[in-house]
Amino acid sequence: MTNPFTAIPKEGRIHQPLNHFGIKNTKTFPQRFFVNDIYWQRSDGPVFLYIGGEGPLSKFSVLYGQHSLSLSQNKEIAHFTITFCGHHVEMAERHGALVVALEHRFYGESINPDGLDTEQLKDLSSQQALADLAVFHHYISQRFGLSYKNTWISFGGSYAGALSAWLRGKFPHLIYGAVASSAPVHAQLDFSSYNKVVGRSLMNKEVGGSKKCLTEVREAFAAVEVALLMGNEMQLAKDFGCCETPVKPQDKTELMQSLADVFMGTVQYNEEGVAFNIEELCHIMTNKSEALNQKEEAYDRLIKLAEMYLARMDAPCLDVSREKFVLELNSTTGRSSYRAWLYQTCTEFGFYQTCEDDTCPFSHTINLQSQAELCSQLFNIPQYSLPVNIDFTNQYYGGNRPQTRRVLYVNGNIDPWSELSVTWNDAMVDNDRVILINGTAHCADMNHYKALDKPALHRARKEIERRVAVWLTMQNGTI
Asked: Which of 388, 421, 438 is the C-terminal boundary of a domain?
């Protein structure tokens, strides 16, 4: 196999219309892309399109290896982003494919020159992103002299996984097959089942969880709530290394969210690069000292976990100021991926990971109101419009019952986002379109092969490779 680091991908910019659907709008923005043609069999080799999501794209989107982790503490929709790369490039080498990747508009360096103010963000949507991909398809086809013989397969993970599925659905004449990893194709306002899966995964013995672990987590958060009710905010701030003392009600909710984010991020990615994995987290939360009673033990272990988390994330303190959070999100300069993504949750997806359900192991103060109100505060989007926006998204794309063929949905069973993906086969549409991987988390299949990967993950990658190979053979007319 070719040394993956000998390839030097080409980086470029394509000038895209800010509004593909406005005839009178002639404004454009520079959209970044990467190309790796080291494996390409130029006559009839396929094209593997890696789709960028809600964060910066890098050259590793067309190379092997895991690029980056970006974790936002104390964010109401628990926005954890890891760039997973490698498996599609390994397949590209075997199939002689041209590998191309396009950064999503309004993320990374593909920012509208006018910034991220609300008026400009009106041009940010999944529909515009799909149109960007269609234009990019045309651009690459012209630049490399492609024809119908060059089969396009799209790849994406998480939101970009949904884009991969939707691109195949909306542009089937351009994309022959699509791999959609951990793709939340069903928009949902109150995503309470996210934390239901977090609780279930913390009990999963196969990944290092236990019923005891979940019990201790519940008791720890109950102890924090009691401390808040008793007015012990200063002690809590000291115990958990808070940047500020959580005196205001909204700051107390921020504290709960920040602590919950440690567990949510751990479960979502588990062994793929966050501060802890589930086994280590549960070991910390169940390592009891006989000198303390049960409730104090759980609380003290949560303190230890928070201390270790801050150290591993190289964070000076735990943000708990709602006012500071809103102020940062109101900044329209720079490249705030979180502001852009929050706008999309308000206008298209929801995805608010609440804790009002009894299955949630954290605090009921993490509710829908505390999250949805940001839409009106930041973008003047009334909360009553959110259900309408989300219903439109599901009507437009088909939700988790899409009527599309040759879309492969890949999910890990401990990933909370699998709740919004397609996890069953539908013989009426395509009886061979689902892979559910036991014991793996968010987008794990997208990384390149590692010796320590679970056997189920190895088998899943082999199955993905088989499906892609079948698609290419079908398109070439061999079968």
From this structure: 388
